[in-house]
Write a structure and sequence with these properties.
about 425 residues, alpha/beta, Aminopeptidase i, Domain 2, 2 domains, nine-stranded mixed beta sheet, five-stranded mixed beta sheet, 11 helices, about 25% strand, globular
Length: about 425
């Protein structure tokens, strides 16, 4: 399969987007920079909102979630909202508040497991630290993004001579004792802590004593890449779910003068259940929609009418068929890389898809000349979930769960298809346009 040059360029744009976004806070910063460059204006939650009839706006909540919208040319009550939702967080390792300590002269960093990562994939990688740090300034508190660019931590494997059954039983890492990262040498815990705070302070050009606390995660310093015999695949961290964020944002930016009011909503905390102020199970989406309707003096009844005329696409990555493990899949539901977006269905509503919303997405694919696939999990395996069911229940809108097929979901290094990313952008543009 030869990849079109345009698809390769879109895939490279995705890789660059992910490489610039080693944490949810960086991802939102990267997204908002693109939005501002394309004429979107920021709104602040604790300020009065005042915007024009056909303006383009975005609002950020606590640095890690962002909602962008474009006011459509038709009245909202008639055309409803065309929404795409995704999430900015990925499973991995998060530093504890008192992360640094010393052990036998070694400086180590304690971590918590965030979400459901494949822990073994974090071993023997060039790792570093990124996120946000809260700083005490003379005039108050400020949040700073920080990214240590060099590899500063590592999780070395135990030699096979001391773990003879690792190839038969797999690498098992105890979450408390097996995951602390090696950071360097330290005389004692105070020395280890000083080294960590100094490294963060130097990167932000502040004094170490100004650092109050942080939200920091571990990230892989290896950049994303194209791979395969014809460079038809992509590999990077955080494809789940920054690939969906990038596709939705690109589609929104490439849609001119939409008839309906278009919304892209990117939430934090999906990987841990979405139940937070910045998660999809919080009030962020309904707050933004209510304020839009309030500005245009849309009554509660007309707002509910607009919801019935709306369509919400929950975009999250899907499980691609792995030829080495055919028994892991339902025999009739093999999602193949580079063969189009996947409609995800689960009878127990782990996905929000039903026949009506699926048919509507199939129509969009046909209108955009994009192939589509259908996926259901093996009945005897537990199925993951998304923001789709949460927001469908909150808003009462017709909702579907879709995503591009990928391998190694929740690994620190995931893989997907070049052509699929292009397909996803095309069909989401169709969604925003029609």
């Amino acid at each position: 399969m030869t990849m079109p040059a345009s698809a390769k360029q879109q895939a490279q744009n995705l890789l660059d987007f992910i490489d610039a976004s080693p944490s949810p806070w960086h991802a939102v910063s990267t997204i908002t920079a693109c939005l501002r460059k394309n004429g979107f204006r920021p709104l602040i939650e604790n300020q009065h909102w005042d915007f024009g009839k056909r303006g383009k706006y975005y609002v950020v909540r606590d640095g890690a979630s962002v909602i962008a919208f474009v006011i459509g040319q038709k009245p909202i009550v008639e055309s409803g909202f065309k929404i795409v939702g995704a999430h900015t967080d990925s499973p991995g390792l998060r530093l504890k508040p008192k992360a640094a300590y010393a052990s036998e002269g070694m400086a180590q960093l304690g971590v918590e497991v965030y979400g459901g990562p494949i822990l073994a994939t974090f071993s023997d990688r060039d790792l570093s630290i990124a996120g946000r740090v809260i700083i005490q300034h003379s005039d108050g508190l400020a949040s700073h993004h920080v990214r240590l660019k060099e590899s500063v931590v590592r999780l070395p494997n135990l030699a096979i001579h001391m773990n003879r059954e690792v190839n038969e039983k797999g690498l098992l890492l105890h979450k408390q004792t097996g995951l602390p990262l090696i950071f360097g040498f330290a005389a004692d815990t105070a020395d280890a802590h000083q080294q960590l705070t100094q490294a963060l302070a130097d990167e932000m050009n502040v004094k170490p004593e100004a650092i109050l606390t942080w939200d920091l995660n571990v990230y892989d310093t290896q950049k994303g890449s194209l791979w395969g015999a014809k460079q038809e695949f992509i590999a990077n961290s955080q494809l789940d779910n920054l690939a969906s964020c990038h596709a939705a944002m690109t589609a929104l930016l490439e849609t001119d003068h939409p008839a309906s009011t278009n919304i892209c909503a990117f939430f934090d905390h999906e990987e841990v259940g979405s139940e937070s102020a910045t998660g999809a199970d919080g009030s962020f989406m309904s707050d933004v929609i209510q304020r839009i309707c309030g500005f245009y003096q849309i009554s509660d009844e007309d707002r509910l009418r607009s919801f019935a005329n709306s369509y919400f696409i929950s975009a999250d990555m899907a499980h691609a068929y792995h030829p080495n493990h055919p028994s892991a899949y339902d025999p009739a539901h093999h999602a193949i890389v580079n063969q189009g977006p996947v409609i995800k269905t689960n009878a127990n509503q782990r996905y929000s898809t039903n026949a009506s919303t699926a048919a509507r997405f199939i129509q969009l694919c046909k209108q955009a000349n994009v192939p589509y696939q259908e996926y259901a999990h093996r009945t005897d395996l537990g199925c993951g979930s998304t923001i789709g069911p949460t927001l469908a229940a909150q808003l009462g809108m017709p909702t579907i769960d879709i995503g591009n097929p990928m391998w190694a979901m929740h690994s620190i290094r995931e893989s997907a298809g070049v052509q699929d990313h292009s397909y996803m952008i095309q069909v989401l543009k169709q969604h925003f346009t029609c």
